[in-house]
Design brief:
By secondary structure, the chain is mainly β. It is 0% helix and 47% strand.
């Protein structure tokens, strides 16, 4: 979770890639970074 002024404004996710996983787009050993922020926290 990402906090700003004591309020949660977003999340960050690290997703290690498994070469056996269906739909895998990355090479084995690579990690995908994902994030979501509330529009009020953009910029």
């Amino acid at each position: 979770m990402v906090e700003l002024g004591g309020a949660t404004v977003g999340t960050i996710q690290l997703d290690p890639q498994d070469p056996e996983r269906p739909g895998n787009r990355l090479e084995a050993g690579e990690t995908e970074l994902g994030y979501l922020f509330l529009p009020q926290a953009w910029g």
